[in-house]
Write a structure and sequence with these properties.
Helix content is 27%, strand content 28%. With 508 residues, it is α/β, with parallel strands linked by helices. The chain is globular and about 65 Å long.
Length: 508
């Protein structure tokens, strides 16, 4: 039996279509209902559906008054605040292309993005890095808020397959890639309502991430709003050991976080909360020990989802269809996936690369300005994820690793080449290798192995990297070595470094 799992075809996306109009379609009916509560230690800032849509459509008009037109790119440099989703949806409402980015990116990293996508406008929060010299205007967060008072714009409708937004992910070439999604990508997320969440209009979903993480943007905000539910998001700085109390205090019915946050939260385990039905996890593999500890503390399960920036979360367990132990779960209803070898789909039970049908509305359109790399990710019908899996006859998928050296930093994929390019530019580093290694059970970090060509202290390398890479990309450990292992063709053998480091740790 070939490892192809076809869960049917999703209902076609309506035409014409606008992503923001779809997300806020319930605003007219649910005007006074709370769409969002931003939870802070000193109080909660709440937004009704009516107020949220009013701000989005006013800002859409205001962005047009800035001289922006359909297809123009808007680079978002905003922090963990409500301006982030309002700016994102306002740009989409006006048929602009928003580019949400992490507030942790350095000035150098943002400068490369600006050069890559040529934004017509940057909306930036205070003390968030932007290039010193930009070819486009910069609108402060304060001035952006003033746009809410403009008369409401009409949603600009159009082809659901037209470019809608761009998100950045690390590429295997070492340069972050601008993943370009269509407006229709939000339509694909309907498959998660039953396939992962069990989401209804009555739910109150608390997400522990920050607004400017795509996991929070999709799972924590856009999906609840598309369903007419309430989104709950803590402000930055809320300690993980406070999250359990917030779940109860705000009557959360679902809690979403990355495995790392679950581990931190469980250091002071939360009690049982009558409103909570289950937890949600994504970003990296959830350790069984973490899942078991959560279930023991709360009496509720965790449902895990698997995906990537190029095609979102498309494999999961759910309340109606839990994942068998040790697996990622099942392709969601409406998905078509396969496990691929060199000659097409392999047999069930055999390892291969996970592929998603390019007809799936959630699969990216292309990498902006990178035709060759785009073409390399597609093979006939299939988008190639680069993840190695096996498929059982019932469709359950087991994760076996990556077919490249991509690293995972707190749920965000990082290319080793991106880190190595920075370290290799240091005048006293001859060459380097960045590797994700296990330092203890269920904990991995990025280690930089480097060959010096002069005297260099670890602290100097740390400062050098911190000035040029977002914090989550920076190595946690620096290890000086005499040489780096390479194959006969000169290819760097990162996995040999990882295995040697972990073996030495275990022997010690």
């Amino acid at each position: 039996m070939d490892a192809i799992f076809d869960q049917g075809t999703p209902p076609p996306c309506p035409e014409p279509f606008n992503l923001a109009a779809y997300v806020l379609a319930h605003a007219g009916r649910l005007g006074d209902k709370t769409a969002l509560s931003v939870i802070a230690p000193d109080g909660t800032e709440s937004w009704s559906y009516g107020a949220l849509e009013s701000a989005v459509l006013g800002a859409a008009t205001g962005l047009k008054h800035q001289g922006l037109g359909p297809g123009d790119r808007l680079l978002m440099r905003l922090g963990n605040s409500v301006e982030f989703p309002i700016c994102y949806l306002a740009a989409l409402a006006a048929d602009l292309i928003p580019i949400p980015t992490s507030a942790l990116l350095t000035e150098d990293e943002v400068a490369r993005i600006v050069e890559d996508v040529s934004p017509a406008l940057i909306v930036a929060g205070d003390e968030i890095a932007v290039p010193a010299n930009t070819p486009c205007p910069i609108l402060s967060a304060g001035n952006f808020r003033a746009l809410y008072d403009f008369p409401p714009s009409a949603y600009v409708l159009g082809d659901p397959k037209r470019p809608g937004y761009i998100i950045y992910t690390s590429g295997t070439s070492g340069s972050p890639r601008a993943v370009t999604h269509a407006h229709r990508a939000i339509w694909a997320r309907r498959m998660m309502w039953d396939g992962w969440y069990g989401l209804t209009e009555d739910d109150r979903l608390l997400h522990a991430g920050s607004f400017n993480w795509t996991y929070t943007l999709g799972t924590g905000l856009l999906d609840p709003w598309s369903r007419g539910a309430t989104a709950l998001v803590p402000v930055s700085g809320v300690a993980p050991d406070r999250l359990g109390a917030l779940i109860e205090a705000h009557g959360a019915t679902m809690f979403a976080a990355s495995p790392g946050v679950y581990r931190q939260l469980l250091r002071t385990p939360p009690g049982r909360c009558p409103s909570l039905r289950h937890g949600l996890s994504a970003g990296e593999k959830l350790p069984d020990a973490t899942r078991d500890a959560w279930e023991m503390a709360t009496g509720t399960p965790i449902f895990e989802a698997f995906g990537m920036s190029e095609c979102s979360t498309f494999v999961s367990g759910s309340p109606g269809h839990p994942a068998p132990t040790g697996t990622l779960g099942f392709p969601q209803s409406g998905r078509r996936v396969a496990v691929l070898g060199e000659d097409g789909p392999v047999r069930c039970g055999k390892p291969g690369v996970l592929g998603v049908s390019r007809r799936d509305p959630g699969v990216m359109l292309f990498y902006w300005g990178a035709t060759a790399e785009t073409e390399a990710r597609f093979d006939g019908e299939w988008f190639l994820t680069g993840d190695l899996v096996s498929m059982a006859e019932d469709g359950a998928l087991t994760y076996l690793g990556r077919d490249d050296d991509m690293m995972n930093a707190g749920g965000i994929r990082v290319s080793p080449l991106e880190v190595e390019n920075v370290l290799n530019s240091h005048p006293n580093v001859a060459e380097s290798a960045a590797v994700e290694v296990s330092v203890k059970a269920h904990t991995t970090v990025i280690v930089a192995f480097y060959v010096p060509k002069g005297r260099v202290e670890h602290i100097h390398l740390e400062r050098y990297a911190a000035a040029r890479l977002a914090r989550y990309k920076c190595p946690r450990i620096y290890a000086e070595v005499d040489t780096l292992p390479k194959g006969l063709n000169g290819k760097l053998l990162r996995r040999r470094l990882r295995d040697s480091y972990e073996r030495t740790r275990d022997d010690g």
